[in-house]
Amino acid sequence: MAKGSSPTGKVLGLALIVVGIGLAIWGYQLSQSVGSQITEALTGAERDRVMMFYIGGAASFVVGLYLAVKR
Keyword set for this entry (predicted)? Predict the structure, then answer.
């Protein structure tokens, strides 16, 4: 078997990049909701759910980027 990443790895990497971007956008939309803004105004902290979307999106994006560009 030849060295380098397989086409399956590249496709999986691109899919994870798209999922990561989607999760980050979803988290941003949740953070802009009225309920989230009230919670942030009263407590001074982002909601846990929003942070999980941001963290999951970032992790998915980084892993996907690694899989897509590794040789």
Answer: Membrane, Transmembrane, Transmembrane helix
> What stretch of H or E contains 60?
helix 48-69
Residue matched to tokens 């999922």: 19
Question: Structural domain of residue 20, as residue ranges?
Answer: 7-69
Look up the pTM and report it: 0.78
Q: What is the pLDDT of residues 10-63, one digit of tens each?
A: 999 999 999 999 999 999 998 888 887 787 788 877 778 889 999 999 999 999
Q: At which residue do the structure tokens 């942030």 appear? A: 40
Domain count, the chain: 1
**Could you give the C-alpha distances from 10 to 3, 45, 52, 53, 60, in angstroms and in order?**
14, 37, 26, 24, 14
